[in-house]
């Protein structure tokens, strides 16, 4: 039986039973390897099979050929082009995916990302500031601190000027009130002190004991809060000193001083001698001693000291022939002595009282000044009596 008659018989069986039947000749044809082009009977058999596929009876043979291709593991279909359509589709999809991945910045060979709930990625750590940026911030911080310190100093000096002016106005008010009814003693004690040390202690009192106030003062003065008290207090003292200098040179300071001297002139005409402390002896000096700091005498000297009044000094060498300052007595003791001198000699003027006290506190051997003690007090009283006698004799001859 020829190959063609075997294929026709297999097609008839398939149409009647519905089950494909393979003949030994068909199986043998399947097992044969495809012949190389231009050689052997394989090419003839392939051509014959192609012709039977094109005839009217080729439906059964075509089904048989497809069945043979499936049983051969798909290798025949791949070579003959049976699976070419699906392969081209996958390749097109792969090429399209590769182009999309390249547009998205991904690799075409990257692993697929598993589907699932998105995990929060930790925020990247902030990079450290560069040296230039840090240096710029430090410069800006120091510039701001310096500007704030200048503003704080300016505000503090303005407040100090107002405080000094208020102190002078207070003294003027007291003196003007007393001169209206001075009494018969011929002396007035004024215990007020207006000095750099007194004003400094007003500012230093709370910061020295309250850390928060101390830190605030340090920032105002432009000093590091970690600085020692001596450094901070020294800076404060310099600002207060400059405030006193600026006030005395200012127009309000000069006008107030002129009013003060005018009031003292009125006391001199009335025969009443004002006595004031020449220095502040309050707690500020003890504070300086505790910090082992020193200050000039001008730091504690009162702004009220004037040649037209009598002042109490800290040491005998203070004062001059025009500015009389007596050391060794308190304001109250000196006031009592002056009142007693005026009882002994009611004709004493303010200038004569100051001169008697200057002579009694001067050592005639060394021409140096000395403290006022009991001997000096008795000498003052004796001089007052002697002057009274001289005045009486003068009246007799006049």
UniProtKB/TrEMBL annotation:
<feature type="compositionally biased region" description="Low complexity">
    <location>
        <begin position="1"/>
        <end position="24"/>
    </location>
</feature>
<feature type="region of interest" description="Disordered">
    <location>
        <begin position="1"/>
        <end position="147"/>
    </location>
</feature>
<protein>
    <submittedName>
        <fullName>Uncharacterized protein</fullName>
    </submittedName>
</protein>
<feature type="compositionally biased region" description="Gly residues">
    <location>
        <begin position="39"/>
        <end position="48"/>
    </location>
</feature>
<feature type="compositionally biased region" description="Basic and acidic residues">
    <location>
        <begin position="25"/>
        <end position="35"/>
    </location>
</feature>
<feature type="compositionally biased region" description="Low complexity">
    <location>
        <begin position="49"/>
        <end position="59"/>
    </location>
</feature>
<feature type="compositionally biased region" description="Basic and acidic residues">
    <location>
        <begin position="129"/>
        <end position="143"/>
    </location>
</feature>
<feature type="compositionally biased region" description="Low complexity">
    <location>
        <begin position="116"/>
        <end position="128"/>
    </location>
</feature>
<feature type="compositionally biased region" description="Gly residues">
    <location>
        <begin position="71"/>
        <end position="85"/>
    </location>
</feature>
